[in-house]
Structure prediction request, 188 residues.
Amino acid sequence: MHDDQDQWAIPGAMMAGFDLDDIESGEFLWNERSTRWGRWREMSLQGALVYREFRSTATLGRLPVLHYAVGKNQKGRTPTARGVVAIGRRAIGLIAVGQFAFGLISVGQISVGLIAAFGQVAIGAASTGQVAAGAIFALGQFATGYVAIGQLAFGEYVLAQLGAGSNVWDTRGVDANARGFFGSFLPF
Prediction:
């Protein structure tokens, strides 16, 4: 392998998974350390960090107050962060932040929040996202909910470029009930 190809070896290993030869040859370095706040676990491959996890010592029931997990662990798997506050590629918690997030309040590319969800695809009681579905409120490019605001929106009270529902304010016209409802939030 040429020296200029070496620069791609580590990112390639991180993106595609681990090479069994690296595991067998002991190229992985594993480090664990405890602090008064919690425990850090880290794994590196040839100097590049490929996995990092923090789990707080403080708990709420069986859940750590904070669980942070990024990368692939020693088994080559992407773990799910689970905690009161969970941060990781996949996260489940009261407050969840991740590519796939599920919680009371969630932020993620695909986000499900029982109270609130924010993300590219967001589902919750109140949601904001490119595609948003909210039982009570939805704000997004494509939105559906009791109150829906978006470029394309469906719901009971709709404010949209193109909307459908019972009380719609869009480019085709303004329903009197929609004007009264949305107008009550306007300062003028």
